[in-house]
Amino acid sequence: MTVAIRVIPCLDVDDGRVVKGVNFQNLRDAGDPVELAARYDTEGADELTFLDVTASSSGRATMIDVVKRTADQIFIPLTVGGGIRTVDDVDAMLRAGADKVSVNTAAIARPEVLGEMSRRYGSQCIVLSVDARTVPAGEQPTPSGWEVTTHGGRRGTGIDAVQWARRGQELGVGEILLNSMDADGTKRGFDLRMLAAVRAAVEVPVIASGGAGAVADFAPAVQAGADAVLAASVFHFGELGIGEVKAAMNAEGITVR
Questions:
Q1: According to its UniProt record, which residues of this chain constitute the active site (predicted)?
Q2: Count of alpha carbons within 13 Å of 195, Cβ hemisphere only?
Q3: What is the pLDDT of residue 215?
Q4: How far apart are alpha carbons 97 and 108 in whole angstroms?
Q5: DSSP bridge partners of 19
Q6: To the nearest 5 percent, what fractions of the chain are helix, strand and coil?
């Protein structure tokens, strides 16, 4: 059976506004998340991802409000990440209208939380977000050459990114959101080698993130093993449209939603 590829705009939300920068630096305002979400729904996006880049407890109430207002406006699945640390956090986001939650730092601190979340709410609700970078020269290498990072890619963990994706699958997550911190915001294309390595290690769907800059960048990510392709600034600032990305993949023989 051919799986139809999903196109997913990602909205980084900071204190109720969408922001975007390069490698999570020099953030600039990209608009109201509810308005952007409604626009993407109309334009044919298959899903949406919200990442709460403030992710503090003080920002949680703001994010819940944004999720509630967005869920009232759109008819496509919504994934919410950033600051999701406990089973109760998952509950709050799902009750607000999210369909899935994405977990990153909390899982690094205590991997068992992924199992607790997936058992309570089902694998289909839990996404493991992996912010991975090439291990810098001079640092202890990992088996694959990529490591998991925290703090927007600025802090290495020494955890092998490919092994971590496999561990997430073993713990019960339903998807891997694989974000290349080397490529993030650069618009030079997805990290195809890393995508292929993770694809070979897991059976759950893999979402490619980081590096989209042109319509021609998306098909190679799918050919490397992505089940979904995610981008942010190129959509927010009107450089690319959802429809033209889907048309370009279609032209390469890829089935899209």
A1: 12, 131
A2: 29
A3: 97
A4: 26
A5: 12, 29
A6: 40, 30, 35
For residue 157, give the amino acid letter. T
Q: Which residue matches tokens 């058992």? A: 119
Contacts of 50 (CB under 8 A, 6+ apart): 10, 11, 13, 33, 63, 66, 67, 70, 78, 79, 80, 81, 82, 98
The Cβ of residue 170 has, within 10 Å, a number of other Cβ atoms equal to: 12
From CA 124, how far away is CA 173, in angstroms rounded?
7
Q: How far apart are CA 155 and CA 143, in angstroms?
A: 18
131 catalytically annotated: yes
Residues of the chain with pLDDT under 50: 23
Q: Cβ neighbours of residue 233 under 8 Å, at least 6 residues apart?
A: 20, 30, 185, 187, 239
**Of residues 12, 46, 160, 217, which has the active-site annotation?**
12
User: Of the listed 52, 131, 217, 227, which one is catalytic?
Assistant: 131
Does the annotation count 217 as an active-site position?
no
What confidence score (pLDDT) does residue 237 get? Answer: 83
Give the model's pLDDT for residue 1.
Answer: 62
